[in-house]
């Protein structure tokens, strides 16, 4: 059995991965809320952006955390097609969950099915990403902990969607994003806890790319997308939100509202 390390580079990988999960969650929830206030093509555009943001944040969180993953007795390589497939699956399945929430007639049904769909997407992304790991040996999983990790992902996604559908205001969205980021991180490390590596002692070349040559550049690209899109969305609040913020600030604060 190979000894696994999850923080090979120190605390920087779990902290940075959590930040990416929070940014992706905040942007995804924000775009979902914006989408709910519109119709037609604009609504679809907001929900697609929300789906990509959530999936990108969760995927980047997973693979930044994987930069700290090391196994005693074996180097680690990543299968490029499977790694890209994990990102595609995350976008499609999380997107299905977001669209169910965005177009669902019943709030309870939207949260339940949207949350389960999104949670399954998160879990599928994680385990496809783990299947992309090549090392000298095999990885086996504890079924109970795998089931727990999927449950954490589903509950977290449902809670975040409930927040997006129910709560308005930047503060509450931020709190929901912090909690969802924490839940996604918990799901990741629960999934990693479920894994046991059996090293076979081989020394031949492994197929695939190193984390530094492939995972890190892709994470930087997705991270840059998230931060730039977040800045754009944050700088374009709706007139309704400005009115609500002005009302919340009290009658003494005057805020000029643009003509809509």
How would you describe the overall organization of this protein?
With 260 residues, this protein is mainly α. It has one domain. It contains 8 helices and 6 strands. The protein has helices at residues 12-36, 40-66, 80-103, 107-131, 143-166, 170-193, 211-234, 239-249; strands at residues 4-5, 70-71, 77-78, 133-134, 137-141, 195-199. The strands form 3 sheets. The chain has a two-stranded antiparallel ribbon with strand order 1-2. A two-stranded antiparallel ribbon has the order 3-4. It is elongated, with a radius of gyration of 20 Å. The chain starts with a strand and ends in an 11-residue tail after the last helix. The mean pLDDT is 83.
Name the descriptors:
two-stranded antiparallel ribbon, mainly alpha
Main sheet attributes: strand count, strand direction, barrel closure: 2 strands, antiparallel
Sheet-strand content, in percent, reads: 5-15%
Averaging pLDDT over every residue, what do you get? 83
Number of strand elements: 6
Reading the helices and strands in chain order gives EHHEEHHEEHHEHH
The number of helical segments is: 8
> Could you say which structural class the secondary elements and strand pairing correspond to?
mainly alpha
Q: How many domains make up the coordinates?
A: 1
Q: Radius of gyration, rounded?
A: 20 Å
Q: Biggest sheet, strands in spatial order? A: 1-2
Distance between the termini: 64 Å
């Amino acid at each position: 059995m190979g000894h696994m390390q999850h923080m090979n580079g120190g605390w920087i990988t779990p902290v940075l991965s959590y930040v990416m999960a929070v940014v992706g969650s905040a942007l995804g929830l924000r775009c979902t809320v914006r989408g709910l206030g519109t119709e037609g093509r604009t609504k679809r555009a907001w929900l697609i952006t929300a789906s990509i943001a959530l999936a990108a944040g969760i995927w980047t969180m997973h693979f930044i955390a994987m930069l700290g993953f090391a196994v005693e007795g074996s180097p680690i390589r990543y299968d490029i097609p499977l790694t890209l497939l994990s990102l595609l699956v995350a976008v499609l399945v999380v997107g299905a969950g977001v669209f169910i929430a965005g177009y669902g007639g019943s709030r309870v049904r939207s949260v339940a099915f949207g949350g389960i769909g999104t949670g399954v997407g998160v879990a599928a992304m994680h385990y496809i990403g783990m299947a992309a790991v090549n090392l000298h040996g095999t990885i086996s999983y504890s079924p109970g902990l795998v089931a727990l990790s999927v449950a954490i992902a589903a509950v977290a996604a449902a809670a975040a969607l409930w927040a997006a559908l129910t709560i308005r205001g930047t503060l509450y969205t931020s709190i929901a994003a912090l909690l969802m980021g924490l839940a996604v991180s918990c799901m990741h490390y629960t999934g990693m806890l479920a894994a046991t590596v059996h090293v076979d002692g081989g020394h031949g070349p492994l197929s695939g790319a190193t984390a530094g040559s492939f995972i890190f550049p892709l994470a930087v690209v997705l991270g840059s997308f998230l931060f730039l899109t977040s800045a754009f969305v944050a700088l374009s609040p709706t007139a309704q939100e400005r009115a609500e913020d002005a009302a919340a600030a009290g009658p003494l604060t005057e805020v000029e509202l643009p003509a809509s």
